[in-house]
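Input record (one chain):
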Amino acid sequence: MIMRLGHERSLLLLAAGISILATPALAGDCDAVADAYDLLSKAPAYRQLTSLDGKPLLDSIAVGDDLYVKDGESWTKTSLEKGQRAAMTKRMVPDAASLKDCAAAGDETLDGAAMHVYDYTPPAVQGVGDPGPQRVWIGADDGLPHRMASESTKTDVRLQFDNITAPAP
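The corresponding structure, as predicted from the sequence alone:
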């Protein structure tokens, strides 16, 4: 069952999802994580499926600077100012230096695709709070984040990039 959320809260969850095992940080590992989020901010379109404690919470689609959030069976469209979607991502992961405890966690396969997995801790964000340690699955072929998870917040975010189009609102 998908919980119905207020529009503003949906946008905050979307932004928090964009950001989602401490060991000594290696500069290259932080660069890889920051680069993946930078690529996400430039992706022409993606679908984000967010779960909380294993239960579906939010289904959203970003196409350019338009965001669509599923509410029951219908979609609500929010048009952002030019560049605002990229700015939201940058707010969550400003740069590699803002990340802590970055460490490669190995390679895995996710939905049939090779992934490089990293643990990291993003910076706290005003209005969202401290997200705690997170793990990200970065596509070996495209460099994009395909999954983000946080044990501390019990969130799991899956991102899809292929054949994403705007839904009918």
